[in-house]
Design goal:
By secondary structure, this protein is an alpha/beta fold. The protein contains eight helices and twelve strands. Strands 8-9-10-3-11-12 form a six-stranded mixed beta sheet, with helices on both faces. Strands 2-1-4-5 form a four-stranded antiparallel beta sheet, covered by helices on one side. Helix 2 packs parallel to helix 4. The longest helix has 17 residues.
Length: 269
């Protein structure tokens, strides 16, 4: 991989408790290629979300180096980390399980929130935010409030709120888990299209194997705690969209490969 947007090198994570230490992640190395969509799957509690937090610069690892956007966030010579920006540009965006929209702000105002916090609510960025809302079918909802939108539309607003910051690396922590199955399928299709259209590199944490295979170019299977990479699988399917990919003749083969790797975890439950 010639020019990854993010890189983990021999990353370890130890949770320190009053009377014990727990090794959560053990010597993980991975690169995330620009423009590619990667899924992290594995047993519950294996550290998938912790890896996102480390990539986001929220949680320092206990060992190893983390490089995002060409700058090291953490390394042995800089244990306190660095700012999550490269050349003054925001590199990482984080989309959580819940949309966390503010009920008292309109959809347009919610999308502008990150720009306000970053003191970057310029006329150019305002116009870009409105352009994204119009481009992805939310022009008629800009003056409405979150309570007036469906769960799927709220998640789409949350994605646009993240994209308006122009991140190069987008981290998604089970963004569809609270939705019903039909909405989840349709939104995954739409969100995948938006992310690829905007040219983001994305890392998705999910418990849904089908979701991982249908949305991503690559699936990394983690072991039970302490997490190591059990297998790194490139996904090559003929179809372009997640919904269409689920009908691809090779889809079931990939599903079986990932499922068998997860089943090898003795602590799987």
């Amino acid at each position: 991989m010639s020019n990854p947007i993010a890189q983990l090198e021999n990353v370890r994570l130890i949770y320190h408790e009053p009377h014990a230490q727990t090794l959560a992640i053990d010597d993980i190395s991975a690169e995330f290629e620009r423009g590619k969509f990667t899924a992290l799957v594995g047993p519950s509690g294996c550290g998938k979300t912790s890896i996102l937090s480390i990539l986001a610069g929220i949680m320092p690892p206990s060992g190893g180096t983390v490089t995002v956007g060409g700058e090291r966030l953490y390394d042995p010579e800089n244990p306190k980390g660095k700012a999550r920006r490269a050349n003054g540009k925001r590199v990482t965006g984080y989309m959580l399980q819940r949309d966390n929209l503010l009920d008292w702000r309109t959809i347009e105002e919610n999308v502008m929130l990150g720009l306000e916090i970053n003191h970057s609510l310029t006329p150019e960025n305002r116009a870009f935010a409105r352009e994204l809302l119009m481009r992805y079918g939310l022009a008629d909802f800009m003056k409405l409030y979150p309570r007036q939108l469906s769960g799927g539309m709220r998640q789409k607003v949350a994605l646009i709120r993240t994209l308006v910051l122009r991140p190069e690396l987008l981290l998604l922590d089970e963004p569809f888990s609270a939705l019903d199955f039909q909405t989840r399928l349709l939104l995954a299709d739409e969100v995948s299209g938006i992310i690829r259209s905007e040219g983001c590199t994305a890392v998705l944490v999910t418990h849904d194997i089908s979701e991982a295979i249908s949305m991503c170019d690559r699936v990394i299977v983690l072991t039970a705690r302490p997490a190591v990479i059990r297998r790194d699988i490139d996904i090559v399917l003929d179809s372009d969209t997640p919904v269409a990919r689920r009908g691809d003749k090779q889809f079931k083969d990939y599903f079986n490969i990932v499922w068998e790797e997860i089943l090898k975890n003795e602590e799987f439950n």
